[in-house]
Amino acid sequence: MLWMKEHAGDDLVVRGARVLDPAEGIDAILDVRIDAGVIAAVGENVDSNGHRVVDGTGLVLAPAFVDPHVHLRTPGREDEETIASGTAAAAAGGYCAILAMPNTDPIVDTAATLGSLAETARREAEVQVGFLAAITRGQDGDELTEMGELADAGAVAFSDDGVPVVSAGMMRRALQYASTTGRPLALHCEERTLSHGGHVHEGRVAAELGFSGYPSVAESVMVERDLSLAAYEEQPLHLLHLSAAESVAALRRARETGVRASAEVTPHHLCLTDEAVRSLDSNVKMNPPLRAERDRLALLEALRDGTIEAIATDHAPHARHEKEVPFEAAPFGVTGLETSFSVLYTRLVATGELPLETLLERMSTGPARIYGITPPRVVAGERANLVLLDLERSRDVTEESFRSRSPNSWLLGETLTGAVAMTVADGAVVHEG
Amino acid sequence: MSDVGSTESPLSAGAGSAGAGAKHSIRLVNDELRPPGPPPRRHLISIADLERDDVERLLGTARTFESTLTRQVKKLPTLKGHLVVNLFYESSTRTSSSFELAAKRLSADTMNIKSSGSSVDKGESLKDTALTLGAYDPDVIVIRHPEIGAPQLVARVTDAHVVNAGDGKNQHPTQALLDLYTIQQEFNRLDGLHVAIVGDVLHSRVARSLVQAFALVGIRCTLVGPPALLPREMPVEATTDIGVIRDADIVYVLRMQKERMQAGANYVPSLREYTARWGVTPERLRPGQKVMHPGPMNRGVEIDPLVADSADALVETQVRSGLVVRMAVLYDVLTGGPVGVQALAAAEVA
Which of B210, B202, B142, B155 minimizes the C-alpha distance to B180? Predict the structure, then answer.
């Protein structure tokens, strides 16, 4: 279930934009009229009915983005992010819906905690927000949460994101029980006896700089284990933030044999390699770590061919003082909601490595389908969940420009091309820039 | 030596006025009135920031200083009025003492801050400690810290020249320079020599600085040790075969960091087994083969006491080299130029 603060459906006409909805096969210069938050007409020379008219000439109008993986730090670290600030950041990034992970303080592992989050979201969420609940109580891997009650309370899915489900037996029980709720499991795959103490991908950069290595195989052996269990139990699963070529290969093999597995990848793993760590900037420290170029290329290829169907920011705000320390002392995680489209457009689409249509689909329809959310569509009769993109406009990434409460972006100081001119979430205009 | 935040070759933009002449050949009147900007700061943070010329200049400066050490009065007034802060977050005997003595021999004021007994004990962050010390306008901050990148952070938040005295497992550049100095004194050359580095390379900042330093001056380098202690993808030849050390001109023995070899870590089954298979013993060496060790030594673990005490062990020479090389480093970051006879003579007059 998704929640958003109370809002009226807006009346609006976007005229003359290039309407690009890859999932619907639409790519044409069209007018789109929204009546009270519902798409009323998509066509040529659409009557404006006296609505406000936005000139879309030269702009792209697409289904708004869905981020399947953010950390809103609420409850517990409201100094780093709140539902209000995180959803405002999402609106600025072109998102109509985001899904928040349950590794907060306290962990979202009871219906009471989830209920209070939903309450807050109904009061302050700028875009639609959904919540995942934990797989195990306290995410400590020992006891299953009451998934039935959590699902009834609106949990979108279950995840112990941040930590792996260590025990294979527990993972099997989780797969079995989650099946009764119709909600997928979203898995953080990390074999900690291999990654423990590692800060940087185990490769040349870690060797030269002296960082403890976090090898690719720490992810891929856990991916293989969970895919094997999913195959055996004939249950679906979703793989969070894939980083390694070996994981992609395992996913391909499993899908060929009929395993219902989906996967996501982050903008930073698509754009950066461990070479970025040479800067010692704590804003390129995340879990899983940035890996080698061959991993990046494997992820990009899997995103292009649909093996990976979603782009997730893994937006992970951290307080300034916690990141202003030497690399090894800094926490894992970077923000991403406000830069994801721009950086992927600049670094991958504009360079010819990724078709624009694929990027839009993987940021919207792809993630929505994984979690059973109605995919945003530019089709008459649908609630308006739209993003208007200016592919010509460039922007400087500065701390001042962020709605997020935390400044730990790896893109500070960069100039990016491709800006979000307007976001419409559940029929309401939530961002204009 | 890196001028943090600048992409050009750091030493070419040194405190000397290289390039200034061309840039200001046409001067506007107003420019004369402006106070001159601060010269770019010079740091020694990583061997990776150095060119071969820099290494040769530093070693040359160290040689000049060495010649002064035989005088009756060993103190030079060269850095009089300068403040050198030694900020040590890890225990250290030879590095901290040699930096302190180097600064004193050059007549700099020194302050030694250790993490225990300071505000660090009270949980003060590195940034705040650096800001606090920075308020005294130190000319140089020498820092040792258990975390990689600590020197860069100090360079970012203070105006001091920063010298890295060891950051985590990353770099120990003055150790590498003093080792080059020692090798050059012993062999009268660097180019074409072959050094085998034996032991726990994975956890060794000394090894990381040496690998880069050796590459810079044309020394061939082979890493030798148990598989789990050789980092993957290190850009240099590596082997588990201890037999290859006989082919080297110098065997450089790394300290087995006992604290990292606790039971259960399983880098090696036991120190006993390590010693049996990778210990540097007289039997594994050629007669006359030179042996180095950065200290402190674990006699009977990575190095046989007979080897440690033999005339071919250069360990004490290394310590002596440490003093003059650190004098040269302090001088170099502060002045940016070679120390010539003239500079020394002027210093003596002053």
Answer: B210
CA B244 to the chain's CA centroid: 27
Q: Which residues of chain A carry a pLDDT beneath 50?
A: none
Q: Do B148 and A207 touch (CB under 8 A)?
A: no
Instruction: Give me the domain span that covers residue A137.
Output: 64-372
pTM of the model: 0.89
According to DSSP, the β-strands at A26-35 and A38-43 are antiparallel
Q: Give the span between the Cα atoms of B127 and B130, in whole angstroms.
A: 5
pLDDT at residue number B40 = 66
> How would you label B157-195 residue by residue, b for 16+ Cβ within 10 Å and e otherwise?
bbebbbbbbbbbbbbbbbbbbbbbbbbbbbeeebeebeb
Q: Is A197 left (phi over 0), alpha (psi -120 to 50) or beta?
A: left
Strand partners, A67: A98
**Chain B interface includes A208 (CB < 8 A):** yes
The dihedral through the CA atoms of A433, A398, A286, A126 has a sign that is negative
Distance between CA A250 and CA A262 in Å, rounded? 12
Instruction: Decide if A151 is inside a domain.
Output: yes
What does the pLDDT read at residue B338?
56
The token pair that represents A286 in the structure block: 């995340």
A381 at interface of B, judged by CB pairs closer than 8 A? no
Are B327 and B98 in contact by the 8 Å Cβ rule? The answer is: no
Q: How many CB pairs under 8 A join A and B?
A: 62
Both ends of chain B: CA-CA distance in Å? Answer: 28
- Whether residue A102 lies inside any domain: the answer is yes
What spatial distance separates the first Cα and last Cα of chain A, rounded to whole Å? 28
pLDDT attached to residue B172? 97
Instruction: Identify the bridge partners of residue B342 per DSSP, sorted by sequence position.
Output: none
Which residue among A204, A210, A280 sits closest to B152, beta carbon to beta carbon?
Answer: A280
Residues in chain B with pLDDT values less than 50: 2-32, 341-342, 346, 349-350
Bond into A288 cis (ω within 30): yes
Mutate to test the interface with A, among B126, B152, B233 (most CBs of A within 10 A): B233
Measured between alpha carbons, how far is residue A152 from residues A86, A114, A137, B188, B285 in Å?
25, 11, 17, 80, 73
CATH code for the domain in which residue A184 is found: 3.20.20.140
* Length of chain B (residues): 350
Whether A314 is a known active-site residue: answer yes
Count of domains in chain A? 1
Q: Could you give all domains of chain B from N- to C-terminal order, each with its CATH number? A: 20-173+321-338 (3.40.50.1370), 174-317 (3.40.50.1370)
- Taking CA atoms, B55 is separated from A161, A370, B50, B139, in Å, by 48, 57, 7, 22
A49 found inside a domain: no
Is A287 among the domain residues? yes
